[in-house]
């Protein structure tokens, strides 16, 4: 995990993510879901009923539930009214499911897009309220608030579907933030392939990065907000068919 650098103000210098495994005694609470959920997806005909939040591992996930030839497509920082619909269209065309790491601010501003993401069978990830890449240098109370407020904002925007993962902005995890997320049923989520698409290096460079770095791990990081994402859309248009041709299948990060 690394903190993004250059290219845009949301990301700071590269630093190592905290890797401790301390768990906090943060009590699990109960959400009233508006739909039954399997892997983050509302199930038709499910009645609304309280669902207890199950604690998950606080270790940072990278593996895919699709097995050794599985890949996880992860999309960060949205939803964005211009770029998210284009990404969703591509995923539909290719029959691919992805993990969308949403900020609380963007989810609150665009609830219809959050609902569309869920309706298409993708899963949600908490990416904090404000995308503060210096979270790991701030108080534990601040870290908790960023994570838990975003969880509530995303769940409300989705119509009751909770995020299943937590990705720290820029990889700024701490033992505390991972434990808070895990206590709320959100597995901390890392990445293996950083496409650097936020730097707008060109679609060719983004595709080449995926092809070069994928042997190192299955979780690929893209962005659908925070700037012009035309290069990301074009790269996805080429990467998704290539992955299929290479015999990869698409899954979600392990829980």
Molecular structure report:
- By secondary structure, this protein is α/β, with parallel strands linked by helices.
- It has one domain: TIM Barrel (Alpha-Beta Barrel), CATH 3.20.20.370.
- The protein contains seven helices and twelve strands.
- The strands form three sheets. Strands 5, 6, 7, 8, 9, 10, 11 and 12 form an eight-stranded parallel sheet that branches. A two-stranded antiparallel sheet has the order 1-4. It has a two-stranded antiparallel ribbon with strand order 2-3.
- Helix 4 packs parallel to helix 5.
- The two termini are 18 Å apart.
How would you summarize this macromolecular structure in one to three sentences?
The chain is of the alpha/beta class.
Taking pLDDT < 50 over at least 5 consecutive residues as the criterion, the unreliable ranges are 1-50
User: Which sequence of SSEs, written as H and E, runs from N to C?
Assistant: EEEEEHEHHEHEHEEHEHE
By CATH, the superfamily comes out as: Glycoside hydrolase/deacetylase
Shape: globular
Could you say how many structural domains there are in total? 1
Report the CATH architecture.
Alpha-Beta Barrel
How would you sum up the major sheet? 8 strands, parallel
CATH topology name: TIM Barrel
Q: How many DSSP E strands? A: 12
SSE-based structural type: alpha/beta
Features:
8-stranded parallel sheet; 255 residues; alpha/beta; single chain; hydrolase activity; TIM Barrel; EC 3.-.-.-; Polysaccharide deacetylase family protein; 7 helices; NODB_dom; two-stranded antiparallel ribbon
